[in-house]
Predict the structure.
Amino acid sequence: MINNPLIFAAISDLAGIVRGKAFPVADLQKRLRRGVGWTPTNVMITCFDRIADSPFGALGDLLLVPDAEANVEVDFGDGGQVERFMMSDVTDLEGNPWDFCTRSILRDALARLEKVGGVELVAAFEHEFQFKRPPLPRSNAYSLAGFVERRQFGEALVSALEMGGLVPDTFMKEYGVNQYEVTNGPDRGLRAADAAVILRELTRITAGRFGEEVTFTPIRDAAGVGNGVHIHMSFLDGAGAPATHSGDHPSGMSALTGSFVAGVLKYLDSIVALTAPSAISYLRLTPHRWSAAYNNLGFHDREAAVRICPVTAKDPQDIARQYNFEFRAADAAASPHLALAAIVHAGVQGIEEKLPAPAPTEEDLSLLPADILQARGFVRLPESLEEALARMEANATVRGWFSSDLVSVYADHKRGELAHLEGMDQTARCAAYESVY
Ligand code: GLU
Ligand code: MG
């Protein structure tokens, strides 16, 4: 077959969908300089491809500018096409970052962290997903049999991730029916979110090579398991030394980590609209699902919104390097860039406000009466996307983190998404999301 190879200039947009345009490989140098044309109203294309009320109408021109540092080229060696895509920025025609470019939004948040906290973020995203093929008679939770069933897929995926420039960490059979988990190693700053996008897309593409489809949807049905995205975070100081841990604190947090985590928890109910942004995300963010239902910190506790992860090292230097905390109130309906930007801004806000380190909880918060929860500063996270959007929009601090009117444009975008779901029952809604994530 005749074939002129193409590179896809990719963005992870407000809907958490990867969109863009392709150009011939031969034009790469030109495209790196001049970009590819793009349209402002595209930012209002919801995950269901309906265009929400757009402040831009038919007006305006933008550019997708590919980033050669975020290039993915994977030859599966199966005689099929070589996959090529490059993470890209959205800029105006002069090359200035566009206010709704998710990579630029994350860059701003990371710059604020560096300015206020003097540290660089290191992050790794854990992803759960499910094969869509009809379920097996049993879930095969964590079993060798479940792993072996998908060993060939797992090995192809790990290989594809390596070719895509990632450092694969683990692949496992998760608890749920047809549910697996893939994790890649930590990356610095922007690269961590790029890696999450690359991992999701290569997982889908690899499944396609096996004639299968996978879904990262937050939840397939209310009675089943959720597919979480858990974001592990740690900090490096200006000299590149670990800055997350301190032996002085009972749960090991440095003062900076303590304030950062306190900020994340303080603003959590106003940012979940950005980290767990689908209508069905709120079926997952309920107690006893090992996701997150309250704004609490856990020490090894998988029901907490932020969890301090176990450290196996013994040497103090290794402990400091390994020590990290995990944000669990995220899912793959969110753009990794936007989710991470919101978390980082909330954390930096905590540093600016000099918030004290939160005390980890050890009990089941869902059993505590409302007045006790309130007295201890805990809030139940929003129970619907509508409520999450309202809390985000009502929070002037959160609005102030972003340039232009990101929060209101984002809320309008999400209302367009909700309009698509009108009249659908829960099963139909889950099916709708499963078909797009
Ligand atoms: N599936 C759970 C979630 O929705 C997480 C399970 C785990 O701790 O890995 O977040
Ligand atoms: Mg898991």
User: Anything to note?
Assistant: The pocket of glutamic acid (ligand 1) is lined by residues 128, 225-226, 228, 284, 289-291, 302, 328 (CB under 6 Å). The domain at 105-402+429-434 is CATH 3.30.590.10 (Creatine Kinase; Chain A, domain 2). The longest strand covers residues 62-74.
